[in-house]
Amino acid sequence: MKQISFSFVIIVLLIISLLLLITSSSKDPYLNSITKIFKLYDYCLVELAKKIDTKNKKIVKAKYFDDLVNVKFGEKKPIFYIMNSKECEFYVKNNDEIYTFILKKN
Question: What is the reported pTM?
Answer without folding.
Answer: 0.69
